[in-house]
Design goal:
alpha/beta; single chain; 9 helices; 14 strands; 7-stranded mixed sheet; 4-stranded antiparallel sheet
């Protein structure tokens, strides 16, 4: 089927990068492609109202000008088919394989691996994002399988929740403020047969009543981590494990000082591109 897509391109620099991400996150946009100084967001033609709303919202924020945002119509091609063909399985630490259903038959060396099937959409990623890979690698190394409760803060597709359960965590709670993310995560949980072990809620962290988590994963932007850190600390049990990403390497001091001030011991830091992933333990 031929479907027209719209691509929103937003020019960014180091000065407005974090604020742009924060505004997009608050507007419900969580899956963004970065290419050479440009943020790219995709919508189908059925979502034309969302495009107009997003453009007006970003311009009204004053962070960018009319010259820094452009909407392109991608037409007369089966973009869905072309995009699907570009999605390859992701291999994490020789332990996890994340793959779309249409590539299942192409998997190799999958014996004794944790398999996670996620059919990505133009507005939702899988494990291809560098920040997601950083968290998954740290989880593979540090989840022992005897943990009882995991919180996935800003779950998106729910890939971190699925990985946690398949690594041996007994139960997970996945939260997100975006309705499309909740729908998408629900589909992914069902597809991977973990729905009975994961509570999925459309709520922000302050609105979550549950606490005493053995593990908290937060793959979101640095400002959201900082703004919600008091609640993260409160909901993580003593000796609980904290996995963080969505943090630029230039912002590491802000997060590391915050962890140190709250007696949370940093155990490991991974870097990929401009991003870092942190594994820490609450003492």
């Amino acid at each position: 089927m031929i479907t027209n897509y719209y691509e929103i391109q937003i020019l960014f620099n180091r000065e407005n990068y974090e604020e742009l991400y924060n505004k997009l996150y608050l507007h419900g946009v969580e899956n963004i492609l970065e290419e050479q100084g440009v943020l790219k967001i995709y919508f189908t033609e059925e979502d034309i109202n969302k495009i107009d709303s997003l453009k007006k919202y970003m311009l009204s924020s004053g962070i960018i000008s009319e010259m820094q945002i452009e909407v392109l119509k991608l037409e007369n091609k089966n973009w869905d088919s072309e995009w699907k063909s570009s999605i390859e399985p992701v291999y994490i630490k020789d332990k996890i394989i994340i793959y779309p259903s249409w590539k299942k038959e192409q998997l190799t060396c999958f014996e004794d691996k944790i398999l996670i099937e996620i059919d990505p959409k133009m507005s939702f990623g899988t494990g291809h994002n560098e920040t997601t890979q950083l968290v998954l690698e740290l989880m593979c190394e540090n989840i022992k399988g005897d943990e009882k409760k995991l919180l996935d803060f800003g779950c998106g597709t729910g890939v971190l929740s699925i990985a946690g359960i398949k690594l041996g965590v007994q139960r997970a709670t996945a939260i997100d403020i975006d309705e499309d993310s909740i729908i998408n995560a629900s589909e992914c949980f069902q597809k991977n047969h973990v729905s009975d072990k994961i509570k999925l809620l459309q709520v922000n962290l302050p609105g979550l009543n549950e606490s005493n988590f053995d593990i908290i994963c937060a793959n979101i932007i640095r400002s959201v981590i900082v703004d919600n850190f008091e609640k993260i600390y409160e909901k993580l049990k003593t000796n609980g494990k904290l996995f963080l990403s969505g943090i630029l390497d230039s912002e590491d001091r802000i997060i590391l000082e915050l962890l140190f001030q709250n007696d949370i011991e940093v155990i490991d830091i991974l870097k990929r591109g401009e991003w870092i992933g942190i594994y820490a333990v609450k003492r």
